[in-house]
Protein backbone atom coordinates (compact mmCIF):
# COMPACT_ATOMS: atom_id res chain seq x y z
CA UNK A 1 0.00 0.00 0.00
CA UNK A 2 2.93 2.31 0.62
CA UNK A 3 4.11 1.99 -2.99
CA UNK A 4 0.63 2.84 -4.30
CA UNK A 5 0.56 6.08 -2.31
CA UNK A 6 4.04 6.99 -3.46
CA UNK A 7 3.08 6.26 -7.07
CA UNK A 8 -0.03 8.42 -6.84
CA UNK A 9 1.96 11.25 -5.27
CA UNK A 10 4.59 11.03 -8.00
CA UNK A 11 1.89 11.01 -10.67
CA UNK A 12 0.21 14.07 -9.13
CA UNK A 13 3.47 16.00 -8.92
CA UNK A 14 4.26 15.12 -12.54
CA UNK A 15 0.85 16.20 -13.79
CA UNK A 16 1.02 19.51 -11.92
CA UNK A 17 4.52 20.13 -13.29
CA UNK A 18 3.42 19.47 -16.88
CA UNK A 19 0.38 21.71 -16.40
CA UNK A 20 2.53 24.57 -15.09
CA UNK A 21 5.01 24.24 -17.95
CA UNK A 22 2.16 24.29 -20.48
CA UNK A 23 0.79 27.46 -18.89
CA UNK A 24 4.22 29.07 -19.18
CA UNK A 25 4.43 28.08 -22.86
CA UNK A 26 0.92 29.40 -23.62
CA UNK A 27 1.35 32.76 -21.91
CA UNK A 28 4.92 33.16 -23.15
CA UNK A 29 3.85 32.59 -26.75
CA UNK A 30 0.97 35.06 -26.37
CA UNK A 31 3.44 37.64 -25.03
CA UNK A 32 5.88 37.08 -27.89
CA UNK A 33 3.09 37.31 -30.48
CA UNK A 34 1.82 40.56 -28.94
CA UNK A 35 5.33 42.06 -28.90
CA UNK A 36 6.04 41.10 -32.50
CA UNK A 37 2.69 42.47 -33.69
CA UNK A 38 3.32 45.72 -31.84
CA UNK A 39 6.89 46.19 -33.08
CA UNK A 40 6.51 45.13 -36.74
CA UNK A 41 2.89 45.45 -37.89
CA UNK A 42 3.71 46.93 -41.30
CA UNK A 43 6.09 44.19 -42.42
CA UNK A 44 3.34 41.72 -43.32
CA UNK A 45 1.10 44.22 -45.12
CA UNK A 46 3.94 45.61 -47.25
CA UNK A 47 4.85 42.13 -48.50
CA UNK A 48 1.31 41.26 -49.68
CA UNK A 49 1.53 42.85 -53.19
CA UNK A 50 4.78 40.99 -53.88
CA UNK A 51 3.36 37.68 -52.72
CA UNK A 52 0.12 37.71 -54.76
CA UNK A 53 1.70 36.36 -58.01
CA UNK A 54 3.37 33.58 -56.05
CA UNK A 55 0.10 32.67 -54.35
CA UNK A 56 -1.75 32.75 -57.68
CA UNK A 57 0.79 30.36 -59.19
CA UNK A 58 0.63 28.02 -56.18
CA UNK A 59 -3.17 27.90 -56.21
CA UNK A 60 -3.22 27.32 -59.97
CA UNK A 61 -0.71 24.50 -59.60
CA UNK A 62 -2.54 22.82 -56.71
CA UNK A 63 -6.03 23.11 -58.20
CA UNK A 64 -5.12 22.39 -61.81
CA UNK A 65 -6.05 25.91 -62.90
CA UNK A 66 -9.60 25.67 -61.49
CA UNK A 67 -9.05 27.68 -58.32
CA UNK A 68 -8.31 31.36 -57.91
CA UNK A 69 -7.69 33.81 -55.09
CA UNK A 70 -10.46 36.35 -54.55
CA UNK A 71 -9.33 38.03 -51.34
CA UNK A 72 -6.16 38.19 -49.25
CA UNK A 73 -6.53 39.28 -45.64
CA UNK A 74 -3.90 39.80 -42.99
CA UNK A 75 -4.19 37.62 -39.90
What can be said about this structure in brief?
By secondary structure, the chain is mainly α. Helices cover 80% and strands 0% of the residues.
Key terms:
75 residues, 2 helices, mainly alpha, 2 domains
Number of helical elements: 2
Total beta strands: 0
Ends apart, CA distance between termini: 55 Å
Q: Spans with pLDDT under 50 lasting ≥5 residues?
A: none
Morphology call: elongated
Whole-number mean pLDDT: 87
Strand content: under 5%
Radius of gyration: 24 Å
Q: How many structurally independent domains?
A: 2
Q: Estimate the helix proportion, in percent.
A: over 70%
Q: Please trace the helix and strand order, writing H or E for each element.
A: HH
Main sheet makeup: none
Structural class: mainly alpha
Can you describe this structure?
The protein has 75 residues and is mostly helical. It has two domains: 1-39; 42-75. Helices cover 80% and strands 0% of the residues. It is built from two helices and no strands.
Helix and strand arrangement:
Layout: H1 2-39, H2 42-63
